[in-house]
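Tokens in:
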């Protein structure tokens, strides 16, 4: 069975994290050219009252990524003294490292401030069944502090059917589902915004918009100007290089409606690899290892090969 956390990253403790500064701000220096991985996996010791929702809020992680990284642990009562994995190591999404990049498959937003050699990353709530979030290229067209909310007719009808009628306009304040700030996008009807509910970040819970923790959306508001490019993708399999080694990070694929997808995972992994021309023609992978990584879908980068190596490779068998 694979060890999901390399020993070099397992040893980070909560005390060491606190000594390094705030543990909640996921800001990393960009890796050198030709490399793709930022951060390190961390572990913390749970207190009796901790839940995955609480720990996610504290460490800028979403609920589902906490569950994926800690299989078999009760998310509502992990237990005092239990070691909890914080999946804070990331393969950066493919494509240009500029502006805002949203990867639906990992429920996560990356922001690359112009002229700075850093990346900020935040968990997101995305569209639930019947309200899938779009895949698109757009930009920020407006920034609004303390927004009011005018519920669309479809959402008002849904709430009315559930016996929870909504007013025509919800004023700014603690009961406003847009939270303290919203970004308007060049996609009619879609926003990046805060939330009046911390539960649901890192899950499929919205009506298609992108929900953030309130402290995160306010931080992003102070950095990302109007005109910031926004690229929205759904990439469950991300290949990356770090220290001359190749890694694969696997998440649960989503369909066009934002639901877990039944796909040919073998084909999906091959397609993701082919997008990396720097790897596809110069790599022999251990497909047994790749199959284990894909089956785990734990969202943490795992070493799978070395570029140009003679790593023994089995035939690329189906990953289903």
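Residues out:
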């Amino acid at each position: 069975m694979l060890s999901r956390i390399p020993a070099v990253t397992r040893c980070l403790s909560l005390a060491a994290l606190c000594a390094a500064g705030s543990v909640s701000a996921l800001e990393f220096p960009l890796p050198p050219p030709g490399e793709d991985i930022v951060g390190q996996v961390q572990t913390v010791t749970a207190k009796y009252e901790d839940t995955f929702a609480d720990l996610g809020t504290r460490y800028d992680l979403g609920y589902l990524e906490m569950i994926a990284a800690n299989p078999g642990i009760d998310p509502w009562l992990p237990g005092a003294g239990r070691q909890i994995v914080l999946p804070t190591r990331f393969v950066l999404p493919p494509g240009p490292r500029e502006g805002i990049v949203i990867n639906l498959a990992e429920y996560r937003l990356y922001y690359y401030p112009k002229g700075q050699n850093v990346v900020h990353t935040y968990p997101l709530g995305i569209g639930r069944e019947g309200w899938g979030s779009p895949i698109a290229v757009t930009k920020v067209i407006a920034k609004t502090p303390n927004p009011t909310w005018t519920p669309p007719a479809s959402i008002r009808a849904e709430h009315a059917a559930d016996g929870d009628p909504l007013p025509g306009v919800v004023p700014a304040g603690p009961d406003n589902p847009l939270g303290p700030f919203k970004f308007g996008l060049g996609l009619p009807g879609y926003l990046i915004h805060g939330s009046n509910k911390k539960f649901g970040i890192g899950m499929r819970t919205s009506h298609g918009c992108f929900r953030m923790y309130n402290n995160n959306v306010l931080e992003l508001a102070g950095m990302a100007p109007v005109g910031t490019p926004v690229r929205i993708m759904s990439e469950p399999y991300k290949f990356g290089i770090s220290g001359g080694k190749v890694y694969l990070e696997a998440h649960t694929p989503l369909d066009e409606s934002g639901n877990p997808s039944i796909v040919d995972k073998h084909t999906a992994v091959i397609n993701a690899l082919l997008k990396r021309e720097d790897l596809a023609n110069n790599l022999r992978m251990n497909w047994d290892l790749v199959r284990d990584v894909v089956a785990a879908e734990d969202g943490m980068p795992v070493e799978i090969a070395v570029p140009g190596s003679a790593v023994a490779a089995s035939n690329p068998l189906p990953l289903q």
